[in-house]
Automatic annotation (TrEMBL):
<protein>
    <submittedName>
        <fullName>Membrane protein</fullName>
    </submittedName>
</protein>
<dbReference type="GO" id="GO:0009055">
    <property type="term" value="F:electron transfer activity"/>
</dbReference>
<keyword id="KW-1133">Transmembrane helix</keyword>
<feature type="transmembrane region" description="Helical">
    <location>
        <begin position="29"/>
        <end position="50"/>
    </location>
</feature>
<feature type="domain" description="Glutaredoxin">
    <location>
        <begin position="70"/>
        <end position="127"/>
    </location>
</feature>
<keyword id="KW-0812">Transmembrane</keyword>
<keyword id="KW-0472">Membrane</keyword>
<dbReference type="GO" id="GO:0045454">
    <property type="term" value="P:cell redox homeostasis"/>
</dbReference>
<dbReference type="InterPro" id="IPR036249">
    <property type="entry name" value="Thioredoxin-like_sf"/>
</dbReference>
<dbReference type="Pfam" id="PF00462">
    <property type="entry name" value="Glutaredoxin"/>
</dbReference>
<dbReference type="InterPro" id="IPR002109">
    <property type="entry name" value="Glutaredoxin"/>
</dbReference>
<dbReference type="InterPro" id="IPR051548">
    <property type="entry name" value="Grx-like_ET"/>
</dbReference>
Amino acid sequence: MMRAWILPILLVLCGSVVATGMVSKGNLGAGAATLLAFLLLAGVNSPLIFPRSIGAREARRRSAADGRPVVYWRPGCAYCMRLRMRLGRRARRLHWVNIWNDPEGAAAVRAANDGNETVPTVVVAGRPHTNPDPAWVREQLSSSA
């Protein structure tokens, strides 16, 4: 779990150092704006923005029961963030598997992507799709409901 927080923590620390340097030179406004920008980046890259992850086995079981897609992702992935943001509230209806927390999920992604841990990998009806268009994922979610 700690691995997911490394990037956000580094962003907060770096932002604090840069902002402190600006404030010490008398640039209070610029320092505050810089700190705010780094805090926003940390928030976007944190695990808090994604729905709660479950294990790959549980995700497959739930997907078989309700027909909803399974999304394999990892923190810090720009393409995963893009997918999450473009799905909006609908993202909570998907089954999310953090491959950094679930070795079985990482193995499923490697099996689907010639040994690479390329995310997001979305599994719909047992077929993996690597980095699909968010509009297509929305369609799959609508058809599964």
